């Protein structure tokens, strides 16, 4: 984990934080991790800002889950009102879940007209895999080499970014993401990508493994935010369908306007067979969904018993409806597109002439800055240095990518122009301080 706290590093912390870490490690155990060389201890948050007990203001340029901002008043009001009225499961008739499903599916192209709700993105990924395997009779799944799709057993099996101790079964094929820094560009990049898809399908066939489908995060965020060439995911979906599989778009990170469009798959001239949604849809409340067609859902529902006790409960649905209200009423998609361009231009200007910065790329308010060493190789130490230097300046980002060398910039969509100016000033200062 490139951006993680290491007690052995000798970072000086306040006595109260040291004691809290000791207690945390005792009751939560080793699976839990903390970000940053000096862990952050926030006590409240608002918009794109986190505050510690001393009132210090940390600019959040990383957390995508509170998509319409921390402690959003509209979401708070909707949740509070519903929690005081009714909260139960979907085996009863309730108005809210139907109204929300109608509103949500209207944002998707045909034939994606139905929704199945769950509580987490991992659950939704798990369900999408079950539907794909049931519909196709296949087992083989194609993913990218550093993908992250969740933490259930099925989702972890297609999440190689969880590390070497997380085994990937032989029914999963790994593809290298297009690499705009170290690989070919344009049509050649797409040719390399599609050759890998064909090889994965052929490998399944040679081993007697029917192809169930392909699942990709629509911006390949864990692979380092790979956005080009436009259309490469659409062409892959054609090959997968020709082999009898389904295409699943994981929209947990890029969805709900982050890229300046409702869904990240839109940039690839693609209509998925299934779409997975996660935590941002409820601004952090436990709600997720699989979006699909009646043809797929009817057969699955008729032959497989599926029920999620509190998936789509009235309180989480109220939060999700408030998120849509905020996105629409405040024109946050257009805002993300405009402010994302401003940030990308500012990042390029700040890093001009710095040989450590190989590329700035992004879509809307999802940006990546790729760090390399003097030989042009991925440099995770340089990325970590910037992450912690920004943390020292009370600006929060992280790093990801196959080489753990890509700064991951992903603020709530309510990020303002003043926030962007503060971020760019801090980024320029961090570059100078670590040069």
From TrEMBL:
This is Aspartate aminotransferase family protein. GO terms for molecular function: transaminase activity. Keywords: Aminotransferase, Pyridoxal phosphate, Transferase. It comes from the Bacteria. InterPro entries: Aminotrans_3 (IPR005814), Aminotrans_3_PPA_site (IPR049704), PyrdxlP-dep_Trfase (IPR015424), PyrdxlP-dep_Trfase_major (IPR015421), PyrdxlP-dep_Trfase_small (IPR015422). Belongs to the class-III pyridoxal-phosphate-dependent aminotransferase family. The keyword Cell inner membrane does not apply. It holds the Pfam family Aminotran_3. The lineage of its organism: Bacteria, Bacillati, Actinomycetota, Actinomycetes, Micrococcales. The keyword Transferase applies.
């Amino acid at each position: 984990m490139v951006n993680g706290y290491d007690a052995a590093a000798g970072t000086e912390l306040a006595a109260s934080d040291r004691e809290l870490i000791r207690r945390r490690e005792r009751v939560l155990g080793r699976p839990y991790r903390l970000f940053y060389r000096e862990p952050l201890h926030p006590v409240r948050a608002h918009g794109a800002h986190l505050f510690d007990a001393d009132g210090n203001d940390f600019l959040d340029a990383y957390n995508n889950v509170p998509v319409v901002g921390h402690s959003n008043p509209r979401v708070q009001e909707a949740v509070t009102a519903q929690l005081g009225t009714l909260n139960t499961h979907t085996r009863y008739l309730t108005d809210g879940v139907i109204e929300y499903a109608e509103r949500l599916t209207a944002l998707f192209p045909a034939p994606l007209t139905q929704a199945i709700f769950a509580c987490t993105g991992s659950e939704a990924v798990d369900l999408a895999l079950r539907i794909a395997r049931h519909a196709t009779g296949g087992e083989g799944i194609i993913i990218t080499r550093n993908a992250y799709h969740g933490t259930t057993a099925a989702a972890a099996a297609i999440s190689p970014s969880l590390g070497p101790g997380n085994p990937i079964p032989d029914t999963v094929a790994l593809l290298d993401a297009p690499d705009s820094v170290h690989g070919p560009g344009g049509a050649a990049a797409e040719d390399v990508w599609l050759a890998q898809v064909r090889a994965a399908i052929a490998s399944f066939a040679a081993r007697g493994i029917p192809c169930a489908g392909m699942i990709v995060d629509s911006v390949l965020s864990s692979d380092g935010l790979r956005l080009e060439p436009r259309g490469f995911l659409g062409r892959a979906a054609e090959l997968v369908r020709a082999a009898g599989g389904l295409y699943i778009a994981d929209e947990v990170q890029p969805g709900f306007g982050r890229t300046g469009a409702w869904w990240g798959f839109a940039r690839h001239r693609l209509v998925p067979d299934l779409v997975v949604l996660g935590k941002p849809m409820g601004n952090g409340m436990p709600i997720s969904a699989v979006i699909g067609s009646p043809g797929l859902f009817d057969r699955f529902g008729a032959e497989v018993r599926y029920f999620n006790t509190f998936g789509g409960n009235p309180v989480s649905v109220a939060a999700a409806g408030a998120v849509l209200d905020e996105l629409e009423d405040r024109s946050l998609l257009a805002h993300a597109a405009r402010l994302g361009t401003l940030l990308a231009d500012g990042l390029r200007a700040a890093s001009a002439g710095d040989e450590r910065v190989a590329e700035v790329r992004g879509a809307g308010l999802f940006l990546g800055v790729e760090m390399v060493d003097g030989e042009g190789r991925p440099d995770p130490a340089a990325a970590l240095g910037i992450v912690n230097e920004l943390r020292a300046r009370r600006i929060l980002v992280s790093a990801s990518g196959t080489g753990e060398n890509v700064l991951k910039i992903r603020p709530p969509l309510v990020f303002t122009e003043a926030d962007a100016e503060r971020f760019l000033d801090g980024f320029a200062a961090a570059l100078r301080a670590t040069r």
